[in-house]
Amino acid sequence: MSTFTESFAVNLTLAVLLVFSIVTWMLILARVWQSVRDARRDAAFKQAFWAAKDLHAGEAIARAQPGDLAALTVAGFEAISEDKEAPLSLDSLGDRKDILERTLKSQLQQIQHRKEYGLMALASIGSTAPFVGLFGTVWGIMHALQNISLSNSASLNIVAGPVGEALAATAFGIATAIPAVLAYNYGVRRVRTTVAGIDQFATDFLHLVMKSPYRAEKKADGKKDEGK
Q1: Residue range 134-156: mean pLDDT, rounded
Q2: Can you tell me the distance from the alpha carbon of 133 to that of 144, in angstroms, rounded to the nearest whole number?
Q3: CA-CA distance, 88 to 86, in Å (whole number)?
Q4: Which of 85, 187, 197, 212 is deepest in the core (most CB within 10 A)?
Q5: Which residues contact 57 (CB under 8 A, 6 or more apart)?
Q6: Global pTM?
């Protein structure tokens, strides 16, 4: 075969690598947008939360704003809200600090899993794309050698074209893998630093709540209504 259209395997390899490349750049753009959005939300929430006059005002801010830190804070407030009518479960066992720590840890794990979305795909593409391209190259060279044997000629005009076309698959595979690997490495580091910052906020929030006589106003109002 002397052209790409004559080699189904090479063309299929290039098509697969093209899909890999499109997926890679879609994931990169999506993660960049998500990272910038989440960073702005969390920065705005932290500034507003620590400027609140008390925990009740901080809770209202958390419920009114989007973002990972706001969701974690809301989960923390709900965990320490006293509700005597709630059914007993393993999650409700322990003192106030244990329940809050367990809730914050669970919420932090959910945030981390959500932020790691797409990293496995980037790692897979980065590790397999060169081999996919190499497969296309080997297959193309094999057919090129067969064509050479059938033509009974090994001139440069006959060899250079098919071999060069086959080698393009390896080049395309490497070009697809490099952005995926770079994006994966950056994404892993970004997730680690972001989760570390959220974990530090969770620790500060835990210490603040343990030192403050916080009681959920909604639950207190409900008890008053029952006594009337």
Answers
A1: 73
A2: 16
A3: 6
A4: 187
A5: none
A6: 0.76
